[in-house]
């Protein structure tokens, strides 16, 4: 199940922890990575949903206005 997650959950985290463990605490690195994943995957999803809802509403208004 974990391998089906984009970017392979665990691989990116392991690389960042290995490279940055001497400069930052592991908890700080993981918090930054969780934030990164939230922005990288959830922000586009929310944006796409808003655009979809806008287009649906705009389409329903055009349909009812007689411009078909």
How would you summarize this macromolecular structure in one to three sentences?
Keywords: Membrane, Transmembrane, Transmembrane helix. This protein has two helices and no strands. The chain has helices at residues 11-20, 26-65.
Q: Describe it for me?
A:
- The protein is mainly α and 68 residues long.
- It has helices spanning 11-20, 26-65.
- The model has no long low-confidence stretch (mean pLDDT 82).
- The chain crosses the membrane at residues 37-55.
Order of helices and strands: HH
Tell me how many strands there are. Answer: 0
Model regions low in confidence, pLDDT < 50 over at least 5 residues: none
What is the structural class? mainly alpha
Q: Give the DSSP E fraction (strand runs of 2 or more residues).
A: under 5%
Largest sheet: none
Number of helical runs? 2
Number of separate domains: 1
* Straight-line distance between termini: 47 Å
Give the overall silhouette: rod-shaped
Integer average pLDDT: 82
Please tell me how large the radius of gyration is: 20 Å
Helix content: over 70%
Output the keywords:
68 residues; mainly alpha; 2 helices
